[in-house]
Amino acid sequence: MRMPFIAGNWKMFKTCKEAEKFAEEFKAIYEKDDVRVAICAPFTQLAVLKKAFEGTGIGLGAQNMHFADEGAYTGEISAAMLKEIGVDYCIIGHSERRQYFAETDETVNLKLKQAFANGIVPILCVGESLEQREAGKEYDVVRDQLFADLKDIKAEEARKLVIAYEPIWAIGTGKTATAEQADDMCGAIRDIVEEIYDTDVSCDVTIQYGGSVKPANAGEILNMPEIDGALVGGASLKAADFIEIVNF
Ligand code: 13P
Fold first, then answer.
1. If you measure from the C-alpha of residue 6 to the centroid of ligand 1, how many angstroms do you get, rounded to a whole number?
2. Scanning 17, 68, 107, 168, which has the fewest C-beta atoms within 10 Å of its C-beta?
3. Tell me, what CATH number does 113's domain have?
């Protein structure tokens, strides 16, 4: 049975002081044990949050990592560095990284392998642009991404994967996919995973929806049968909003 998984993606927001303040506020109101929760924060805040979340069951995620073990890669962070400070998850292939930082399916694939090799659960982001949806290509785009991103990843690793379906046109725009659109694509993603692997793996994989999820629409989206959780951007920055989503 898959437990709902709600993760916050803070993107490039908050200083360490602000992260500590969020943690104090969130811990005071967080009491769920039937929902998996994590915050994916900028690198500088990870150690601060690790300490602040100790004993709460709240998971910790990064938003990117390099695919090499180590090396002359100025400005990059390795999986071992993240693991050392207790990071559980890493967002990989977010559309903002694909769009602004030249992330490709090839680098996403290498990063997924590196995350698994280091015991970090990847949150793999896939999703189509508005142009692609208007052309009726959303299914093909996501299918191509999944086949390329999961190339040569073994079933025993893939079953631990979290996939976030994030239509680019719904990110930070206030335009949410309808619950039906999100549910259709999450179901299609599970079918594609079944095609790549088998039914067992597709049943184990957690599939989130991301894109303008907020307290007002979280219940409708998260109660859809194919949607296992949410990757929340803007609305994860305020403890009062994020808890409403967690308590959907
Ligand atoms: P918003 O919730 O701000 O639209 O961001 C979604 C997202 O990109 C999460 O990764």
1. 12
2. 17
3. 3.20.20.70
